[in-house]
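Hi everyone, sorry if this is the wrong subforum. Our group has a chain we'd like a structural model of before ordering constructs, and none of us has done structure prediction before. Sequence below.
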Amino acid sequence: MRAFPIALTRRASIAALGAALGAAALLAGCSGSGGASGAAEGDMALGAPEGTKVTVVEYASVTCHVCAAWQNENWAEFKTRYVDTNKVRYVFREIPTPPVPVAVAGFQIARCAGEDKYFDVVHALMSTQGEWQNGGDPRDTLFRIGNGVGLSNDRIQACITDPEGIAAIEARAEAARKAGVAGTPTFFVNGVKVETPGSQSGTSLADLSAAIEAELAKS
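Answer:
Right subforum, don't worry. Here is the predicted structure as tokens:
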């Protein structure tokens, strides 16, 4: 994989944006540990409303190959079983992982797309990682996906370089670090981390479902 090849504006390159996040955003690659509970600033959610009996929190990155594997293998069934039925509130929390500049740009575009299209962008970015991981230009992928949800090229560039958005990503990454989250993907069910030792694609759906069903069964 090569570095992000070109600047997205004349004023700032995407590499500079990644540097602006600092060390707090660089959680080490596709494994995780730590704890988290309660609502957090900037949460993006699907399914049941806040305050529901079971909340599933996923810390993930659009540039993490394990996150992409989990999505490919488990998301459709998880969504059908728990999100579409409003059995759980699913919360997604952004953790930019290497290459951080691409992750930051992707998250900025997703948020600019709006809440109704946020997850469409996130899932599209995960499913197209191979385009730039195999030598392609990530800029092409980012802009194509942004265009696909109705954003113009000018709007995409403005989103990617928005200083308030960058600061918000940095704050969310720092909050995750303070909570002890060390990588992606990391899952919590009602504040308790769920792991599958030895898994090559994150927490298994079987283990996640067991934790969810145990919480749903409580009086």
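For your construct planning: The first strand starts at residue 44 and ends at 47. The beta strands are 44-47, 55-60, 89-94, 186-189, 192-194.
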